[in-house]
Amino acid sequence: MQTHFLPAFHGDAIWLNYHDSNGVLRNILIDGGPSETYGEKNKKGKFEFGVLAETIDSIRGNGQRIDLLILTHVDDDHIDGLIDWINYDADAISLIDRIWFNSGKLIFEHFKVPDIVENHISLSVEDLTDTAIKDGVTFENLIKDKGIWEYKIIEQGQTIELLDLKFRILSPDEEGLRELLHKWEKKEPESLTAFPKDYKKTITELLASDAYAKDPSVHNGSSIAFIITYKEKDMLFLADAHPEKVVEGLKQFKFTKEKPLVCEFVKISHHGSKYNTNYKLLELIDSPTYVISSNGLQRSPYKQCLARIIDSKKDLSLFFNYPELSRHIFLKEDFETYPDLKILPADYEFRIA
Ligand SMILES: [Zn+2]
Fold it and tell me: Cα of 24 to ligand 1 centre, how many Å?
């Protein structure tokens, strides 16, 4: 199995491909990044395809399918690239076999509360090319009509065996879903272009003044986070989940400080935000490698978050899907204090044989 953390700007788009026990090549896509991940207009106003479009083309070109698409939660930096794909490409939906998505409609039904249609994901086209999709069509209706949406809540405690893989779901819990029972605020797009301000401090300085505070985002708290097991090896994908919920999920699957989850790698939560990784979570995980999916331009990763990871593990490697970021984050003193800290190269392959 190979896992590709696509450069999805400030978002997540993760592509897994592997052979199942019958030798069939399978593809799983976890989120699709913000719009630009599918494509964007260049300076001359011409639309150029991005890394998500290239990935989809290669899957299609090889006669394969997207066997499972997981939408972890509804924030733009996870879903807009996929919505653009569907708007742009009339054959998009026919390439997908199965979708996991805790949509507003599904969550409201789950709690037997009247639905709020404003929470549905509109497919009305703004500035992409012409398309067969008409105004008022929602993503939910489209995937439901095509019969590819499992239309069941994915939540903490479930074990799902599928495509020769095992998924153990850590987040969301019932509370995380219940917190979505209102009209959702559309997050204002932030046009930040500066790195978090803590890059000038050393890891030692950051640890000396460290204090963890919770992530207030209810959308992040509804993230689908899970362990994937392939050939008895585990991988941890945390979306933008809240660490409190992931801790509870890991405990439900009997992981403890003494017997932590041993895994190949962790996609750390929320692009390395300091609000989404704490020591209580780290002590339940034994992994040699931590992955940060972020271009660094939307207040993440925080060096504070990375400092906690480095502080809690003896020997570890970090992988940035924008590798140049590490040069902005770490100072010479950091590598002197933590000589075992390794930064994996851009072409590092996450491969499980
Ligand atoms: Zn995100």
Answer: 31
**Distance, CA 214 to ligand 1 centroid (Å)?**
16
pLDDT of residue 156: 98
Phi and psi based region of residue 127 (left: phi greater than 0; alpha: psi -120 to 50; beta: remaining): alpha
CA neighbor of 350 nearest in space, from 60, 72, 18: 18
**Does 194 have pLDDT greater than 70?**
no
**SS3 state at 30:** strand
If pLDDT is split at 50, 70 and 90, which confidence band does 193 have?
A: low
- pLDDT of the residue at 128: 45
Beta carbons of 53 and 44 less than 8 angstroms apart: no
Residue whose structure tokens are 């997981």: 70
User: What is the rounded radius of gyration, in angstroms, for the C-alpha atoms of the chain?
Assistant: 20
How far is the C-alpha of 238 from the C-alpha of 227, rounded, in Å? Answer: 9
Structure confidence at residue 298 (pLDDT): 82
pLDDT band at 136 (very low <50, low <70, confident <90, very high): low
> Per 3-state DSSP, what percentage of the chain is helix, strand, and coil (rounded to 5)?
30, 20, 50
Domain boundaries, the chain: 2-154, 175-351
Give the tokens for residue 313. Answer: 């593990």
Residues with CB under 5 A from ligand 1 (ion): 77, 240
How many Å lie between the centroid of ligand 1 and the Cα of residue 21? 33
Rounded distance from Cα 5 to ligand 1 centre (Å): 13
Q: How many angstroms separate the Cα of 269 from the Cα of each of 32, 64, 81, 223, 326?
A: 16, 29, 19, 10, 18
Question: Rounded to the nearest whole angstrom, what is the distance from the C-alpha of residue 300 to the centroid of ligand 1?
Answer: 10
181 C-alpha to ligand 1 centroid (Å): 20
**DSSP secondary structure code for residue 182 in this structure:** S
**What are the tens digits of pLDDT across the range 58-117?**
999 999 999 999 999 999 999 999 999 998 999 999 999 999 999 999 999 999 999 998
